[in-house]
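Below is a typical protein record.
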Amino acid sequence: MESDATQWSTLEAFHALADRATDKVEACVQTRPSRSLVFRFALHGEISRLRIPTPQAPGRAEHLWEHTCFEAFIKQTGSPAYHEFNFAPSRQWAVYGFDDYRKAISSPRLERPPQIDVRRTNDRLELDAFVDVQDLIARPAPRSLQIGLSAIIEDREGSLSYWALKHAPDKPDFHSAVAFALNLSV
């Protein structure tokens, strides 16, 4: 599974909770050999007006979604089960497994932890997360995956805005079936 081109998607802000410092959030996913994925995020705006977690030693951490964080959701087409990945600009990460919509939470062990690269300028924050998903995808390999890409952005005052490929109509819910808006052939 290897992609030839990168197609960036612009994430939509959940209208009721959008912040004024963020101009745009873009995301894409690239496939790599050996069932690896690269999730790429680009946050455009007045970065100085946002709370960006400071770099730390890479590792698993909890509650990353309470601050600026990028997320990827992966499910095999036709299955209710899915995995959620959280990637923080601090280079900390988390992964959770679900049997169905927000049910049976587990914390899968990964043979190789995600590698997170972060680049920052005055008007842009970029995060690339390299993830080996071979232990999470059933064998034989599925022909397609459904992907949800999202972001939580915290401003200096501590308010959160929610960005996703698609939102459920009533509240920001990245676990909603609507949010799995990207189909990826593998």
Summary: Residues 9-185 form a domain with the Immunoglobulin-like fold (CATH 2.60.40.1190).
